[in-house]
Amino acid sequence: MSASSIGASDRQTATAEYVRAGGGGIPALFEYFAITARRYFKVSAISQLGAPVLYLLALGVGLGSVVNKGTGAGSLGISYLSFIAPALVAATALQVGAGEATYPILHGGFKYHRTYFGMNATPLTATQIAQATLAWIAVRAALSAVLYLLVVAGFGGLRSIASVLTVPVAALGAMAFAAPVAAYSASIETEGGGFAAIFRFLVTPMFLFSGTFYPISTLPEWARLLAWVSPPWHATELARWVSLGPLHLRSGVGQVSGLAVFVHLAYLVALTVAGVLLTGWRYRVRLST
Question: How far does Cα 248 stand from its chain's mean position?
């Protein structure tokens, strides 16, 4: 047997481990994303640990000391750090989800590396590829929330064991925005500044005006309407509810009615489901051409 035939046999064997009957499905694709992410794990971990430390030092400790000395802590019933911590966890997960739903999908998946076309040449379906991509984005968002929560705990910003529930809340909030963005990324041929516009005119304003640093009741009425339709506000309300609600603060921070909880969850789930369906459709269209 020639060396070339041996090499070809080895490649076929390696490929067969991932392209099993039915294409291996979502688990095989998820394994691929995890293996790929190992190359950037250290850089990603450093950035996702460094950002929380800087934010919490500047806002939770620095600005928080000013707020706490005034009437802020008294009106909130807790320290300013504990007030912003759940919101920062939710906001960070959304930012990570948005990042994963833009450049990696268009540039890596469809345009330059064309990874998705290679996957689609196997028994894997376009729907499986789309679902695995969204599942990976959800996991990345959840992991970022876990890391942020650990940093918050180190700063003494956790006031209830229920704070761990901010992780699934943050992941849901992230997907409510990231899934529709993923559908957009799978629909365009070139970025053309669209992604920059998403971060500049959607992600950043939502981060600033969705109740992250102050109650939206302090905003003008027109700005409150914008906050109500933004996924991070709903995620922030839920995050504070699971983190601070059990404390029964006199200020009412974290206290959300059962109907409001249902509305927040229904809104985030509806956006996520719509985004998943749209993404699957756009992947099928894109990979069939």
Answer: 29
Residue 7 pLDDT > 90, yes or no?
no
Q: What 3-state class would DSSP assign to 123?
A: coil
Asked if 178 and 141 touch (Cβ cutoff 8 Å), the reply is yes
Residue 140 burial (CB count, 10 A): 24
247 DSSP 8-state letter: G
Which residues have CB under 8 Å from 144's CB, separation 6+? 48, 92, 93, 96
Distance of CA 241 to the CA centre of its chain: 19
Give the contacts of 147 (CB within 8 A, at least 6 positions apart): 45, 48, 49, 52
Inter-residue contact 131 to 215 (CB < 8 Å): no
| Rounded CA separation 222/22 (Å) | 51
The pLDDT value recorded for residue 50 is 74
Please report the pLDDT score of residue 56 as a whole number.
82
Residue 204: helix, strand or coil by DSSP?
helix
Using CA atoms, how far apart are residues 168 and 185, in angstroms rounded to an integer?
24
Q: Which pLDDT band, with edges at 50, 70 and 90, does 15 fall under?
A: very low
Give dist(CA 257, CA 66) in Å, integer: 31
Residue 244 in this model has a pLDDT that exceeds 80: yes
With beta carbons less than 8 A apart as the criterion, state whether 174 and 138 touch: yes
What are the backbone angles phi and psi of residue 207, rounded to the nearest 5°?
A: -65, -35
Whole-prediction pTM = 0.86
Which amino acid, residue 210? S
Task: Identify the burial level of 229 via C-beta atoms within 10 angstroms of its C-beta, where 0-12 means exposed, 13-18 middle and 19 or more buried.
Answer: exposed
Q: Are the beta carbons of 169 and 238 closer than 8 angstroms?
A: yes
Distance, CA of 245 to CA of 255 (rounded, Å): 5
Per-residue DSSP letter, 144:
H
